[in-house]
Amino acid sequence: MCIRDSPLAETGIYQQALFDQSWVCLACRNHPRIQGTIDLPAYQAELHIGVATGTGHQLLDAALTTQRIERKVMLELPAFPGLGAIVHSTDLIATLPGHIGRTLAAQSDLQVLACPVPVEGFTVRQHWHARYHADAGNRWLRHLIADLFAQETDSASTTALQRIFDLLVGKGAEAQEGRNGNGQLLLETARMVGAVSYTHLTLPT
Fold first, then answer.
1. Which helix (H) or strand (E) is 20 found in, with range?
2. β-strand partners of 51
3. CA 75, 76, 77, 79 torsion: positive or negative?
4. How many Cβ atoms are within 10 Å of 133's Cβ, its own excluded?
5. Which helix (H) or strand (E) holds 176?
6. What is the phi-psi region of residue 141: left when phi exceeds 0, alpha when psi lies from -120 to 50, beta otherwise?
7. At 13, is the secondary structure helix, strand, or coil?
8. 63-110: per-residue pLDDT in tens?
9. Three-class secondary structure of residue 109 per DSSP
10. How high is the pLDDT of residue 112?
11. Which end of the chain is more exposed for a tag (fewer CB within 10 A), N or C?
12. CB neighbours of residue 109 within 10 Å
């Protein structure tokens, strides 16, 4: 089972849409030139942090290329972990999906700005193999995830991920219910769920 931003092409895979993603920019709270909003000329003038891989990065690259917008990328990271701390301590800005952006902004006290570049959004889905479709633990987990993301907002998705983590590591009665259904699945999930805020959640298949 996995949660990701693009459909799996393999046969025998179920999928369910969870929430839609738009794009935001992050800047430090006391940025000398950016406060509250950023327009396209300012976006092109500032120095950027690029992320080489991660959720939806191909869409951002395609939008910049199509619209002939060039960024001054000062630093490129292999993934999202560490991005918030760098934005917090520098004048560099970053462009990334809204859920990840708001998660990092809350952790590092950053500004969240509307992205001045039109970038195609995308839908985050959960996927599971047909052989686990009737499995009690798998069914419990995917129903829980779908229910927690039902509000379909970025702030709700951040709360949902935290609640999923709490349940998987054993906080609350719902966690015990799911553990009784498939303890090994939840144990492995708890070890990997920390990656959700940055890329996607991957569960054993």
1. strand 13-21
2. 77
3. positive
4. 12
5. helix 173-181
6. alpha
7. strand
8. 999 999 999 999 999 888 889 999 999 999 999 988 888 889 999 999
9. coil
10. 96
11. C
12. 12
